Amino acid sequence: MKHTVLRGYQPQAVLSYFEDLCAIPHGSYNEAGAAAYLCAFAEAHGLAYRCDAMHNVLICKPASPGYENAPVVMLQGHTDMVCVKRADSAHDFTADGLRLIVEDGWIRADGTTLGGDDGIAVAMMLAILDDDTLAHPALECLFTVQEEVGLGGAAGFDYTGIRAKLLFNLDSEEDGVCTVSCAGGVRCDMERPVTWEECRMASAQIAVRGLKGGHSGAEIHMPRGNAHRIVGAILAALAQRYPYRIVSLTGGNMDNAIPRDCTAVIAFAQEDGAELLAMLGALCAEQQAMLSRDDRTEGRVVCTSGDTVCRCMSEADTAALLGLLCLTPNGIVTMCEDMPGLVESSCNMGVLCTGEDSVTLGFLARASVEARKEEIRTRLLLCARTFGAEMHCSGEYPGWAYDRDSAAMARYVRVYQRLWGKAPRVEAIHAGLECGLMKHAVLGLDPISIGPNMRDIHTPEERIEIDSIRRVYETVCAMLAEKD
């Protein structure tokens, strides 16, 4: 493929492969093109590989001379990306390649997510597989799919025959940090049936736009608003003074992303119009003033009057949906006592969608302690039952407990200290990682997770630092050459 934007930057091999991947649409559930590219790469390089029906790809490379008896290492990352774009972007994630931009040593995309999470891991693995000068043990490079929508690829992959003892997952977002534990999670989708009633009422739209958003695990502790909850707070306050009916609720597109945008349309009596709209404007202004520093740069909370509507939800449906919007758990639920600053459990209301006969709410509950995850699931279930919704849970994945005797952790710390003259940080994260699933699937597998500096992942502001890509790549290569 033609490389233009990243030409001349180092490590060139890694960045060339990254630019290749960025030219291929590869959102979650649309990884077939990336899988075909990986299989063609393996065939061109004479490497053994297999690709399953989900489009997970495993590429294996024999040990270099002198490393035949070293423990087999798995390198792993995922090919899918979160597809989020600015409201004014015409980008089609199913057909268009990403438009890359380099600014001040960082790579970003034009108006869309970049997919550095986790395309940079794919690129690093391909560069390593392509380089016959590197010293390394036998390698099993696993490229998984559907990570961003519930770790589906890692859960569905057949690990029969995997020989790896060490796993270097390349899906972290900060150079010089070794992740050694992560949270488990479960997706909880509520569906609340609605009854439509004919009416002839005035309408208004409440819209929250342009919040910072972000990853619902890694950034759940940041002072960033959830657009759905802001709309819920406005509607709850309005209900204290004026009766109204909900016409639609829409916002968010991923339950693992803090929603940036939400729109509600309500219907109300014509005679309440002027006073209701005045109160609505005041409530929006109040919420605008309460936006955090992160959100207020581009965030807007606005209301506009609309046309007369002829269909709205029933009074009971409106009350029930307001309850679900405002009373379900959201944000940090508990903090970890053993690791100060670490979120122990959380819940994110990520998706709102009004269909023909129901409203769907999508949640992601996370916890490093299994009992905490069950507490959140129970609270969500009680809310669903209280307000007449059905709840279905899916995509559950285990956490990954800290192992103080981890050989993978010790190797990383030792190599990083030698290369860069300082000790790395060793920490746990609240986000889910495929490491937890793989550790449970492969007996005796010892994982760590590392990666280059990324910022604002899962948002159109996502970017990745070029120099940190070089440092991480050199660190991985040195780790492979290391003999314990």
Total number of beta strands:
23
Rg is: 24 Å
The quaternary structure here is single chain
CATH level-two architecture of the largest domain: 3-Layer(aba) Sandwich
Tell me the major beta sheet: 6 strands, mixed
General form:
elongated
Query: What is the tally of helical segments?
Result: 12
Strand arrangement, largest sheet? 1-2-6-3-7-21
Could you tell me the mean pLDDT? 95
* Poorly predicted runs of 5 or more residues: none
How many individual domains? 2
In short:
By secondary structure, the chain is of the alpha+beta class.
Can you put this structure into words, describing what you see?
The structure is a single chain. The chain is of the alpha+beta class and 484 residues long. The protein has two domains: 12-182 and 399-481, 3-Layer(aba) Sandwich (Aminopeptidase), CATH 3.40.630.10; 186-397, Alpha-Beta Plaits (2-Layer Sandwich). The chain is built from twelve helices and 23 strands. The protein has helices at residues 12-22, 32-44, 116-130, 152-156, 227-239, 273-289, 293-296, 315-327, 370-386, 407-420, 434-441, 466-481, and strands spanning 48-51, 57-61, 73-78, 100-103, 106-109, 139-144, 166-169, 177-181, 184-193, 196-209, 214-215, 245-251, 257-258, 262-268, 300-313, 331-335, 343-354, 358-367, 390-397, 425-428, 446-449, 454-455, 463-465. Strands 1-2-6-3-7-21 form a six-stranded mixed β-sheet, with helices on both faces. A five-stranded antiparallel β-sheet has the order 16-17-18-9-19, covered by helices on one side. The protein has a four-stranded antiparallel β-sheet with strand order 4-5-23-22. It is elongated. The model has no long low-confidence stretch (mean pLDDT 95).
